[in-house]
Structure prediction request, 433 residues.
Amino acid sequence: MKIITTHKGTDFDALSSLVAAHLLYPEAKPVLPNTINPNVKAFLSIHKDLFDFYSPKDITLDHVTTLIVVDTHSWDRLENMQVLQERDDLEVIIFDHHLKGDMQSDQKTISETGAAISILIQEIKNKNIFITPIQATLFLIGLYEDTGNMTFPSTLSVDAYTAGYLLEKNADLNIVSTFLRQAYGKKQKDVLFEMIQKAKRTEISGFSVSIAKMDIEGQVQNLSMVVQMYREIVNVDAAFGIFFDKERNKCMIIGRSRIDEINVGLLMRNIGGGGGHPGAGSALLKGVNPDIVEEMLLELLSGNQHTSVMLSDLMSYPVVTVREDTTIEEVAMILRDMGCSGMPVVDSEDHVVGIISRRDFKKIRKSKQMQSPVKAFMSQNPVTIEHDKNAIEAAKLMIKHDIGRIPVMKDNKLIGIITRSDAMMYFYDLLPH
Ligand SMILES: [Mn+2]
Prediction:
């Protein structure tokens, strides 16, 4: 007899991999451990009839000739299978994305993908095995759960290709999100309720902000999701959770913001964290008092100048400009010497009247046009931006108008230029800090 099984505390990745392995080995019996995660239980309670699982106690281990394991290859993570360890004649087949494990095998496919299901789907795809929309949906839940919706750094391109393949097979995203939300368990619920009870709501520079400070014991997964839910429930522009772990003397600060003006990633860097992006960020600080952290946050939020990078910090200046009557030939030379692809065109009063870029040169047909004034070929009425706007607004304009550079204005005067690469420096956290 052949059996397939997976780890105890079965999560969606494990369940998906079990079902997928059954497609590869239809003659094997799928054995589902009795200890499964609550959200998996909820899924099975609705889809029970579709799957025919065996319980470990239904299996006479003496009859097992082949053991197929998915999403683990450690004996102690299997339920009731330990006796099989002693068997020399047992064939073992492994599909896993964990590198560690003590099971020896005849045939193993182990690679460090974000989710184990990605490995199995590649096999299914190669063998052209049919999968139903319901199976595709389950597989996608497993994939999203183990990769944090493709956001965990462990996610590989093969995981993303797998998602594409499953969507092609009509995985239903409405069902996917219904079951993924339940990754919110009792621990998370307790934290959320305490946060709501302790919530303080303040107005800072016209925005609503809420900071919740509380003690936590041990590791609580998914706190960032809790803070996200908290922000939605208390309905503020930005929310922060300060979680203090007394035993380890560590403070975890997690922030979420829905507005451009409060840049959480930058704020977290200011208090000693790293990374993040404008809408979300976190910091783990050792040996700090949570009250001090709260004070720092409030100070930075009301200081404002530290919490938002203005264009004037990012832009390039002084700006090289050309007068509107400069010939195209001269402009071409200036651009070549400067090694840039475009520049603003100004009139005799230094007002920006256009932008000339390499793209405009394509309009030139005849060589005598090289002697024409630049104003004949420049793009007129260029998009400009005020100096007190931020990088996000500049990036939005670049995308909207498909342009790579925007003159930065102050009191109707050109004071700098922001380019796509300046904006990218900001988004990819490449600024010195
Ligand atoms: Mn897994």
Q: What stands out?
A: The chain has three domains: 2-183, 186-308, 313-427.
